[in-house]
Design brief:
The protein is α/β, with parallel strands linked by helices. It has ten helices and 18 strands. It folds into three domains: 8-44 and 91-146 and 252-293, 3-Layer(bba) Sandwich (FAD/NAD(P)-binding domain), CATH 3.50.50; 152-249, Polyamine Oxidase, Chain A, domain 2 (Alpha-Beta Complex), CATH 3.90.660; 303-370, no CATH class.
Length: 371
C-alpha cells in the first residue's frame, strides 16, 4: 500500500467533528464524501485555552473571559486566570461556514441523506442511506455514540435569551450555580450561564447523574432561575432558541464497529467534564500520521486524567450528594489557571494532586479503594 490514501474517504456525520475532519483531509489532498443531514441546531461550544485558537474556530469566537464564578448557598466564588481563558464559540456559525467553504472544493462531495446501516465487506465498508449505497476503503463515523446503561450522563437544556446579561447580573461566566431545585436524587443539578453579547445571554440547566431527565424539567429549572434574577415572568418572546444535549460521561458505544470512530464517538469528550472541542482538535492532529500508516488514529487522555475521571465518576454514581461540595471546594481552593489546566488535561500530576487535595477526602478515598 502506498503512502497516499487512494479513492474517496467516507465520513458519516455532519456536525462539528465531521466537518472539521473533512476540511483536514481535503487540505491533505484527499477526496471526501460527507454523509448525513446538516446539523442546524443552535450550539455554543466552550473550552479553556492558553494558546491561540486554531482556524477556522478562531473566526467564530463569540467571547472569552479570564475569570468565571461558582455559586453555592448564596456564596459567590470567582476564579481568576492569567494564562488561561474560557472561550465560547458559535458552533452553528462554524458549521454553516464549513459547509459553505467545503461545497466549493472539487474534492468534496456531500450526501445529505441519513445513514441507515454500515455493512462490512471483504475489502470495503458499505454505507446505506434511504436513497443509495456507497462503498469505502476508509470510513470515519462521527455520529454521537450510544450510552451504556451504567454510564453517567450530562444533560442540559439551554435558552438563548434576547436579554442583556446585566439585567440578570451576569458579568462573567457562571460555571455552576447550585442554588436551584434538584432534578433527581441520584445526581446534581446546577445552572450554567454565559454573557454572550449586549442583548444575548445563554442560560442552561444541567444535570450530572445516572437518570435521564426530561428536557422540560430542566427548562423549567432554567426559567425559574432567570425569573428569580430578573424579578419578572419570562415569556417566550424573551428567548430566540433552545439547545438540548445529552453527553455520556464515561465509556461509550460507537454507532458502528465497522468504521473509525472520530469526535465524541472516538473519545474526544473528557468524561468528567463533558468538554469535547480540545479533544477533537487533538484527534485532528493525528490525521497526518494516519495518512501515512493507515492505522486508526487512537486519541486518549493522559493516564492521570483517566484515573481522576474514573474516581470522579465513581463518586457521582455512588455518592452523588457530595458532588456539589466537590466542585465548590475545587473552585475555592485552587486558582483559575490550575483549575483550567486540570480540566483540559494540561495540568499534569501537579494539577491532579491539587484537585485531589481540594475535594472531600472520604468519598474519593473510598472510591479509589472500591475502583
Amino acid at each position: 500500500m502506498s503512502d497516499r490514501v487512494d479513492g474517496k474517504i467516507g465520513i458519516i456525520g455532519a456536525g462539528v467533528s465531521g466537518l472539521l475532519l473533512s476540511e483536514k483531509l481535503i487540505k491533505a489532498g484527499c477526496e471526501v464524501i460527507l454523509i448525513g443531514p446538516s446539523d442546524e441546531r443552535p450550539q455554543t461550544i466552550c473550552s479553556w485555552r492558553s494558546e491561540k485558537t486554531p482556524l477556522p474556530q478562531l473566526d467564530h469566537v463569540i467571547q472569552s473571559w479570564k475569570s468565571w464564578q461558582m455559586i453555592h448557598r448564596g456564596d459567590v466564588n470567582v476564579q481568576h486566570a492569567v494564562r488561561y481563558r474560557y472561550e465560547a464559540i458559535d458552533a452553528l456559525s462554524l458549521k454553516k461556514s464549513l459547509e459553505t467553504a467545503l461545497s466549493k472544493d472539487s474534492k468534496f462531495n456531500r450526501i445529505k441523506h441519513k445513514v441507515s446501516s454500515v455493512i462490512p465487506e471483504t475489502n470495503a465498508t458499505q454505507v446505506c442511506t434511504d436513497k443509495d449505497e456507497y462503498k469505502f476503503s476508509f470510513l470515519f463515523d462521527t455520529r454521537p455514540p450510544k450510552r451504556p446503561e451504567d454510564c453517567c450522563l450530562q444533560q442540559f437544556t439551554g435558552l438563548y435569551l434576547n436579554m442583556s446579561p446585566e439585567r440578570l447580573n451576569i458579568n462573567q461566566p457562571i460555571l455552576m450555580d447550585f442554588d436551584v431545585p434538584q432534578a433527581t436524587t441520584d445526581g446534581v443539578t446546577f445552572v450554567y450561564a454565559l454573557p454572550l453579547g449586549e442583548e444575548n445571554t445563554l442560560v442552561e440547566a444541567t444535570q450530572f447523574g445516572m437518570t435521564e431527565v426530561a428536557s422540560d424539567v430542566l427548562a423549567n429549572i432554567g426559567v425559574k432561575w432567570i425569573e428569580k434574577r430578573h424579578n419578572n415572568i419570562l415569556d417566550k418572546s424573551s428567548y430566540s432558541a433552545k439547545e438540548n444535549g445529552l453527553i455520556p460521561m464515561g465509556s461509550i458505544i460507537p454507532q458502528s464497529r465497522h468504521a473509525i470512530s472520530f469526535g465524541v464517538a472516538g473519545g474526544a469528550t473528557r468524561p468528567a467534564t463533558g468538554y469535547a472541542l480540545r479533544g477533537i482538535e487533538s484527534q485532528l492532529e493525528l490525521i497526518t500520521p494516519w495518512l501515512k500508516t493507515k492505522k486508526a488514529p487512537a486519541f486518549k487522555f493522559s493516564r492521570t486524567a483517566t484515573f481522576m475521571d474514573s474516581i470522579f465518576l465513581g463518586v457521582l454514581k455512588n455518592d452523588p450528594s457530595v458532588m456539589k461540595k466537590v466542585f465548590w471546594q475545587m473552585g475555592q481552593r485552587i486558582d483559575g489557571d490550575l483549575f483550567a489546566s486540570f480540566l483540559c488535561d494540561e495540568g499534569g500530576l501537579r494539577g491532579a494532586l491539587s484537585a485531589a487535595r481540594a475535594v472531600p477526602k472520604k468519598s474519593f478515598i473510598r472510591q479509589a479503594f472500591r475502583g
